[in-house]
Structures are given as C-alpha cells and as structure tokens.
From TrEMBL:
The gene is Plin3_3. Keywords: Lipid droplet. Belongs to the perilipin family. This is PLIN3 protein. InterPro entries: Perilipin (IPR004279).
Length: 113
C-alpha cells in the first residue's frame, strides 16, 4: 500500500483531491459540517475496528508479509512497463492536451491539403 501511495501519479492525484476537498469544506459551510461529522464517524469506526482486528492481523502477519512481497515485485514490474505512473497528474493532463492538439493540427493539415 505504501509503495502504491508513493507513486508520483497516485500521490499527486491524492494531493489534488485533498486540496479540492479542503477548499470545498471551506467554501461551503454546510458541506463542511457534513464532512466534519463524516470524518468523526469514520475515525470512531476505525478506532473501534482496529482493536478487534489486531489479533487477527497478528495471526495472519506471515501470510500478509508474503503477499506484500509478491505484490511489491509485481508493482515494480508494472512501474517499469508504465512510466506514466511516475508522472504527476498535471503533467499527464498537459501531455494529453499536447498530443490531442497535435493530432487535430495533423488532421486539419491533411484535410487542407
């Protein structure tokens, strides 16, 4: 999970969503109060669940470690095959706009000639 969260694409998307969320809460007080209540509820449920799940996680720890190692190797290969994962969202959007723009220009030139 940490390896996925640290991918440039994922972390930049998380930052964008977090900024939009904070901005929305600040700009719209009613939405902000609903979000605050939801956050408190999630925190309470998470805390209650953590104490119940901890014994199970301790038992499963060796299996989780093996799956984690296997997943990490798979993610490493995926990162090699998809360098896009190491780009921030803004750069991907800019690259896509440039690609679409160049294709439109190419199509326009082809039609004109």
């Amino acid at each position: 999970v940490n390896q996925v969260a640290n991918l440039t694409l994922v972390s930049s998307a998380r930052d964008m969503v977090s900024t939009a969320y904070a901005s929305t809460k600040e700009s719209h007080p009613y939405i902000g109060s609903v979000c605050d209540a939801a956050e408190k509820g999630v925190k309470s449920v998470t805390e209650a669940t953590a104490s119940c799940v901890q014994p199970v996680l301790t038992t499963l720890e060796p299996h989780v470690a093996a799956v984690s190692e296997y997943a990490s190797k798979g993610l490493d290969k995926l990162e090699e095959k998809l360098p896009l994962l190491q780009k921030p969202v803004g750069q991907i959007i800019l690259d896509t706009k440039e690609l679409v723009s160049s294709r439109v220009v190419d199509a326009k030139d082809a039609v004109s000639s």
